[in-house]
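Model it.
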Amino acid sequence: MASISPMPSRLPAADQIRGFLAKYHPDVAKQARAARRKMRTRLPHAVEFVYDNYNALVFGYGPNERPSDAVLSLAVMPGWVTLCFLQGARLTDARKVLKGSGNQVRSVRLMGGPADLDQPAIKALVSQALRRAAIPMDPGQLGYTLIRSVSAKQRPRRNAAGGAA
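Modeled.
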């Protein structure tokens, strides 16, 4: 079982995130940084959770510090970034852009990079997810970043060829 540190570091969150992203191919890290900037701009009132897990680096976005209340997340994989809708199974997806068949989560791989977040269909799904959230974002709250966990054991963050997929 992978060990998880509940208090990963005393370093500021920005420094820790730079270190997490440094494990990835520069192209993937660049896409992740840009996608994260877009999400922080779109969700200025959200608490951003960061998990440097066994499988991926994940940035979750929710109205408070309870991960179970999170609405969206970005999952940084060795070759791409994915936008996850944590209650995506309940969303109306007229354009059929969401992938997945589980009971809750649906996702969109950002194949065109962070610019995909500006596509009307994806923007509409994000808006719908926020409207349907059990707990809405508090417009009076200034969002912040919280490093939730860092797994001691992790899969390689670059594909076998060392680059982005």
